[in-house]
Amino acid sequence: MTFPNDETGQILAEIQDAGIDLSIIHPVVFFQLFEKKEQAQAMADYLAEHAPEMELVIHPDETPNVWDLDCTVKMLPCYDAIVAQEAQLEQLAAKYNGYNDGWGMEA
To answer: How far, in Å, CA of 88 to CA of 14, rounded?
Structure first.
């Protein structure tokens, strides 16, 4: 399988090269960053109500004064679905003064 020549495509190619079967559903984690825990919590509260199937974890980032909201979605890790989900979460994070910091999968 080939992927577009961008960051998402490169990550998917690396995951595929590592032997992960991308034709089955996997937990995909989308990372959102905030300056304040309250901002991360507000987005988590919104998602808990509107996307109850999503697993949400708030924790301090390695960078001081930054909070992570990890949003895990069980999905088929195809390029278009990942790009769409990432864009949707990025738009939502912006409403809470946060921003998207990429995505990942556990190997």
So the answer is: 24
Q: Contact at 8 Å (CB) between 107 and 42? A: no
- What is the arrangement of strands in the sheet containing 67-75, beginning at the earlier edge strand? 55-60, 67-75, 26-34, 99-105
> Within the chain, where are the H helices?
7-17, 37-50, 79-95
**Phi and psi at residue 47, in whole multiples of 5°?**
-65, -35
Tell me if the pTM is above 0.85: yes
Domains of the chain: 26-105 (3.30.70.970)
Tell me phi and psi for residue 20, to 5 degrees.
-80, 130
Q: What are the residues whose beta carbons fall under 8 Å from the beta carbon of 28, sequence distance 6 or more?
A: 72, 73, 74, 75, 77, 82, 85, 103, 104, 105
Mean pLDDT of 19-23: 93
